[in-house]
Amino acid sequence: METVQIFDTTLRDGEQSPGFSMNREEKLQLARQIEQLGVDIIEAGFPIASPGDLEATRAVAAEIKHCTVAALARAKQDDVDAALRGLEPAAKPRLHLFLATSDLHLKYKLRTTREQAIDQIAKMVRFGKQHCDEVEFSAEDASRTEIDYLSQAVLAAVESGATIINLPDTVGYSTPDDYAQIFRDVRARLGAHPNVVLSAHCHDDLGLALANSLAAIDAGARQIECTINGIGERAGNTSLEELAVALQVRQDRYPVTTNLQLEKLYPTSRMLSTITGISVPPNKAVVGANAFAHEAGIHQDGILKNPLTYEIILPEKVGVPARRLVLGKHSGRNAFRSRLAELGYETTDSEIAECYRLAIVRADEDKEIGDRDLISIIHQVRRGQTSAPANSGPSAATVR
After folding, report:
1. What is the pLDDT of residues 42-60, one digit of tens each?
2. DSSP notation for 139-195
3. For residues 61 and 90, is the Cβ–Cβ distance under 8 A?
4. Do residues 80 and 124 make contact, with C-beta atoms less than 8 angstroms apart?
C-alpha cells in the first residue's frame, strides 16, 4: 500500500486558534509527543509572527530529529528569511511558502493581480529552494480559485523548485466531490511532474474537514495536514486522530497506510488538553470521554457479548485505557451484573433483578449510578431492606 504522509500543524495552525497559545517549553513537550506518535512532518511555527515564535520554532527544529520540521512563511522576503532562521538547527528542514490564489483574496486582501501573484510565487520559491532542499507551496484559498489559474500558479511553483503542493480548503467551503475534482484537475495539469506530492489542508467550517481530506486521498493526495484534537482557526482543522482511525478502519475503501502509532493517539490528545487547559467535547470522535462509553441497555449487552457489535475499533488500539459501561436509566441488567462482578459481587438472578429495580429508581434522580451507589444497593438488597415503587421497571428508553 502507498503511504500517506501526515503533516501535523498543531503547533502552528492549531496554536493560532483562540485559547490554544503555547509557550516555548509547552511546544517542545508537545513536539516530542507528536514525534513519538509517528507523524512525518511537524510544522513548528510561523517565525515572522513574533520573536517568541521564531525562538520556539528554532527550539523544536533543534530537538526533533526523526521527522521533518517545517516553518511557514508568506511569499515575502522577510517571512522567508525568518523561516529559514527558524529552520537552521533542523536535521530535516522544510520551508513552507504560501500565497493566496483566489480572486477574492487577490483583489481585497493582497490588492494584486494574477500575474503579479504568479511572479511573486516563482521568485520566492526559487529563493527558498536555494537555501532549503525541501520547499512546499500552498495556494491559499485553493478551493475558491478558478481551476485554470490555480493550475498556472501551481505549475509556476513546481517549475521554481517546489516538490510538495498544498491545495487548502482554507475556509472550509468545499464539499468532498468538489475538493476531489480539484486534485484530479491539478494532477492532470502536472503531467510532466509525476513525483510532485499533492497535499490537503482542510478546515471544518461546514463539518466536512475529514470527509474532504478522505476525498483528497481518493483523488491522489499523499500528504494530509491536520491537528491533534482538530484544533485550528475558527471551527478547526482535520482531526489527526479521526483521520488515522478512518484510514485504519476503512482500508477496504482507502488502501493506504500511515506511519502513525495509533496507541499514542489518546495520550497525545490528553497532553494537548493538559497544556492548553481546554478539554475535547465528550462526544468527540476517538478521544472524547464518550467515544467508548455505552449506556443504552441493548448496546451494553452487545458490547459484553462481542465489543465489535458497537465499536468499530477497540479502545486499547488508540490508547484509551478501557471502555466505560455507564450505568443509568437506559442501562440493562447485564451491565449491572457485569459491573457488580468487577467490584467483587457475584449475584443471583433475584438479587440482580432487585438491584436493577432500585438502581433505575435512583438513576431517574441522579442520572448516573456510580460504584459507591451500586455497592450501597447490593448491600441493601442483601440485607433485605429494599423499598421502591412496584412499577419501577425499565423505561421505554432502555430498549432504544
Report:
1. 999 999 999 999 999 999 9
2. EETGGGS-HHHHHHHHHHHHHTT--EEE--BTTS---HHHHHHHHHHHHHHTTT-TT
3. yes
4. yes
